[in-house]
Write a structure and sequence with these properties.
By secondary structure, the protein is of the alpha/beta class. The protein is built from 15 helices and 15 strands. Bound molecules: zinc ion (ZN). Zinc ion binds next to helix 10.
Length: about 425
């Protein structure tokens, strides 16, 4: 059955399911406990090991360091010319863009949206298996779809002054052209408890906006980024506290955007502009220092039965050659960018993979690129005891799981 019909069928059964006592998927965890698996995925757009590692060495990301120490980490292989909607759709379907329908920010002249998805996504598969699902700010999830829980859209949400939905930052109250929250009854609750938060990170300023006002524009924009992240942190904390779900997928997008035009580059790098690139050389590393605080909030909700995955769709690196001015029209518009991720060879910009939880090995770093963005959905389904559907191209990352002997100590992370 096409997944959209299955979605409809799911809705028809929703009331029936709601009347049943809560049970869901229960199977023994590797340490022998019979508990329902709980998985939190924290997606960080464009998280880049080159920037993370020095901060980890200096002890400036204590929360991430703790998760790495108690779990498995490594690079994550992405695909050619990676960008957020493309890869998040792979995270959810484990099928290539040409099969799942989301080939980029713009698909056949229209901004990527959930109506274009042709492969059944993870949130639908889990919902149909009675796993409760909560999602917030995941790229390309607008308009939201019904799930067995809640969904709050992210990047590519349409709204006031952003009718095309391209990399702007509508407030919850400014959303247009579809629902940003499922169930819609959750909107007044979120407005009351979290506030009228910004759905996504701000669009990057254009070269014209910057000309002659470089310092003011950089600082104003970074302030807006900090405000957005704080709202997201508050939203995540509220959702994890008041709406706990078996599977939770939370995403931040500001890091990638800061990296595009404020990566700490040197005068020998392509596109270096002394006027702009000396204003705030810490702007990009600061995003990761701030990210670590958001991770700290998430860790408050992680116990010994929780699997935590921290993933990025790709990394981001300084430009290596002069780019035509409009090469990044769909992502960066007219911004003078100095770093990018859509390299033709995706292996130039691997993403981040960190996993910690019951049954997962501790303190193991995986070398090379054996783990891929296609493997996320099959691995999550495996944790819930669900067989990945045939169309999924990825594999279950069996190497991250260890024997019960290796993981018996099961330290509680706080
Ligand atoms: Zn980007």
């Amino acid at each position: 059955m096409p997944w959209k019909l299955r979605c409809l069928a799911y809705l028809l059964f929703a009331v029936f399911i709601a009347l049943l006592p809560a049970q869901g998927q229960v199977r023994p965890t590797p340490n022998g406990a019979h508990t329902r698996p709980r998985v939190i995925v924290f997606g960080v757009n464009g998280a880049e090991w080159d920037i993370l590692r020095p901060l980890l060495v200096r002890g400036e990301m204590p929360n991430l360091a703790r998760v790495i120490e108690r779990g498995v980490s490594g690079k994550m292989r992405t695909i050619s010319a990676p960008n957020c909607p493309k890869i998040y759709s792979i995270f959810e379907t484990s099928t290539p863009p040409e099969e799942n329908g989301i080939t980029g920010f713009i698909v056949h002249g229209t901004t990527a949206n959930t109506g274009m998805l042709r492969s059944e996504p993870l949130w639908s598969l889990l919902s149909n298996s009675r796993v409760t699902v909560g999602m917030a700010n995941v790229p390309a999830t607008f308009p939201v779809k019904p799930v067995n829980g809640y969904m709050i859209s992210g990047m590519l949400t349409r709204g006031k002054n952003c009718e095309d939905g391209l990399l702007c930052s509508p407030k919850l109250s400014e959303v247009q052209g579809g629902d940003a929250v499922y169930p819609p009854t959750m909107v007044p609750e979120l407005e009351a408890k979290v506030g009228d938060f910004l759905i996504d990170c701000a669009r990057m300023p254009s070269a014209k906006d910057l000309l002659g006002h470089e310092v003011a524009v950089v600082y104003e924009w970074l302030e807006r980024v900090s405000a957005t992240r704080e709202q997201q942190r508050k939203l995540f904390d509220y959702l994890l506290t008041d709406h706990p779900t078996d599977f939770t997928f939370l995403v931040q997008s500001c890091e990638d955007r800061v990296g595009h035009w404020l990566y700490p580059i040197q005068p020998y790098n392509v596109g270096y502009d002394r006027k702009l690139n000396t204003i705030q050389v810490n702007a990009f590393p600061d995003q990761y220092r701030a990210l670590d605080k958001v991770l700290g909030t998430i860790l408050k909700h992680v116990n010994e039965n929780t699997t935590l995955l921290i993933i990025s769709d790709h990394g981001i690196k300084p430009l290596r050659e002069k780019e035509p001015h409009d090469a990044h029209r769909d992502h960066a518009g007219t911004t003078p960018i100095i770093a990018k991720h859509d390299f033709e060879d995706g292996d130039d910009v691997p993403g981040v993979f960190v996993a910690m939880g019951p049954g997962i090995k501790k303190g193991v770093r995986i070398m090379g690129l054996p783990m891929s963005v296609f493997d996320i959905a099959p691995t999550i389904l495996y944790i819930y005891g669900i067989t990945p559907p045939e169309q999924m191209k990825g594999r279950i990352l069996t190497e991250i799981f260890g024997s019960s002997d290796e993981t018996a100590s099961g330290t509680l992370v706080r």
